[in-house]
TrEMBL record, chain B:
NCBIfam families: HEQRo_perm_3TM
Protein name: Amino acid ABC transporter permease
UniProt cross-references to CDD domains, sorted A to Z: TM_PBP2
Recorded family membership: Belongs to the binding-protein-dependent transport system permease family. HisMQ subfamily.
The organism's place on the tree of life at top rank: Bacteria
SUPFAM superfamilies reported for this sequence: MetI-like (SSF161098)
Residue span, ABC transmembrane type-1 domain: 17-202
Key words, A-Z: Cell membrane, Membrane, Transmembrane, Transmembrane helix, Transport
């Protein structure tokens, strides 16, 4: 089943008014694949993954997630969101709930799981991101890195088939980046299917099966990390890699 | 001979105070319920519905409350619907409060960061859960100082009910004052009664505001 297709995007186009954010994107993600999306800011990479769980609507093309075609119906959106977990740049934890409540809410409300089971699941995933001892605290009492790990655990509690990461380390202080990346690497090693928008090229080299470079709403180039970094084909890619690797 | 301000007069004022409190409670409860509906409709994302709600708010914020009370009491009577004075002013205040509270809460709902709703959507939560579990608990906290401030205005504003013959605290004071010719004493007592109702609320409201300001600094 390693070849099972989890996400299939075909001819996806998206406009904001007159501005075209996504131009004819085709992307197939197989089960267990780890994909890193990179590109300059404004290139549409965040928008693209936000289309997968319908935080953004597309105007043309089709998106199929785990066999379910994403259209405008609430039912289709529901089904897809149950299969797709997302981690945001700004964590977006619910500030008025404890860490544990953050992790229990969606399974109880959306999956209709009982409280006891939801709590057991939540504690298991909080242990897994090594934050089990903070379960009773509120998000504001945690560091940025801890909050992002809670956000990962919260998404995992819904037992998604795919995890989307939207610049998960960009809002973190440098010393906290590693703990979040380590958590993501652990998840990758466990076989989770992942699409990560990130500029962490070390992470890309270590875990990605494919690196995709986007600019101006288009996929410019994609390839295995070794080839992508050593021998980029397009001038645009070389320029981008030159800019970001110069800082590392 | 003219009676002096004594226990019976004080009792009369207390009954006026009771009606003021009761009218405030009914108007506030009704205004909260209808105001919540107004706030939710105003932020529902459907252009037509949002416009209708905006017009509703515009009408009740843009015309004098006095006029609205006249319309409910005398206007509805003309159509054959004769309402008891208390019922009429309760309806008038409820509708008016729903427009003001609806607008206060609309602002509070929109002040909850967009990322909260997005995270909830990404987790597969439906509109009802997103509102009940995520947005409203945060919006209510944000709106608490303004809501309390409105409640204080409402308590004092109920004196307008006197215009259709409803005897609440201010009107009771006027009656007693006319009987006793002791306006300073009588209105002093009336003022003290309003103050005892309003001041603790105002104090609580500003304390909430200070705490919220502190929380948002973190």
């Amino acid at each position: 089943m390693q070849d099972q297709i989890l996400i299939e995007m075909q001819g996806v186009q998206k406009w904001y008014g007159g501005y075209q954010a996504i131009r004819d994107v085709n992307l197939t993600v197989r089960k267990g694949e780890k994909i890193v999306l990179c590109g300059p800011s404004g290139s549409g990479k965040s928008t693209l993954i936000r289309c997968i769980n319908r935080l953004e609507a597309i105007q043309q093309g089709s998106i199929v997630v785990n066999g379910h075609r994403l259209d405008d119906s609430i039912k289709a959106i529901d089904v897809v969101r149950q299969d797709v977990g997302m981690v945001f740049q700004s964590f977006n934890l619910f500030p008025h709930m404890t860490v544990l409540q953050n992790c229990m809410l969606a399974p109880i409300r959306a999956r209709r799981i009982g409280k006891i089971e939801a709590e057991a699941t939540a504690r298991r995933y909080l242990e897994r991101v090594r934050i089990g001892d903070q379960a009773e605290k509120y998000p504001a009492q945690l560091s940025g890195g801890q909050q992002q790990r809670v956000a990962i655990a919260r998404a995992l509690c819904m037992q998604p088939k795919v995890m989307l990461f939207d610049e998960p380390t960009s809002a973190l202080d440098p010393e906290m980046v590693k703990e979040v990346l380590d958590t993501m690497i652990g998840l990758a090693n466990d076989g989770m299917t992942m699409i990560c928008v990130t500029h962490e090229m070390g992470f890309a080299r270590q875990v990605a099966d494919r690196v995709i470079f986007m600019a101006e709403g288009q996929i410019i180039e994609e390839g295995a990390p070794e080839a992508f970094f050593r021998n980029p084909q397009h001038a645009r890619t070389r320029q981008f890699l030159g800019e970001i690797l110069a800082h590392h | 001979m003219t009676p002096h301000f004594g226990l019976p007069e004080f009792g009369f004022l207390l009954r006026g105070l009771q009606w003021t409190v009761l009218l405030t409670l009914v108007a506030f409860a009704g205004g909260c319920t209808a105001g919540l509906a107004v706030a939710l409709l105003r932020t529902c994302g459907h252009k037509g519905v949002e416009w209708i709600t905006r017009i509703y708010i515009g009408i009740f914020q843009g015309t004098p409350l006095l006029l609205q009370l006249f319309v409910v009491y005398y206007g509805l009577a003309l159509t054959g619907l004769k309402l008891d004075a208390f019922v009429a002013v309760a309806i008038g205040f409820t509708v008016n409060a729903s427009a003001f509270l609806g607008e206060i809460w609309r602002g509070a709902i929109q002040a909850v960061p967009r990322g909260q709703t997005e995270a909830a959507m990404a987790l597969g939560l439906h509109y009802s859960s997103r509102m009940r579990d995520i947005v409203l608990p945060q919006a209510i906290r944000i709106s608490l100082p303004a809501t309390i401030g409105y409640l204080v205005q409402l308590i004092k504003g109920t004196s307008l009910a006197a215009i259709v013959g409803f005897i609440e605290l201010a009107r009771a004071g006027q009656i007693v004052s006319n009987q006793t010719f002791q306006p300073l004493l009588v209105f002093g007592v009336v003022g003290a009664m309003y103050f005892i109702l309003c001041w603790p609320l105002s104090w609580w409201g500003s304390r909430m505001e200070a705490r919220l300001a502190l929380a948002s600094q973190r």
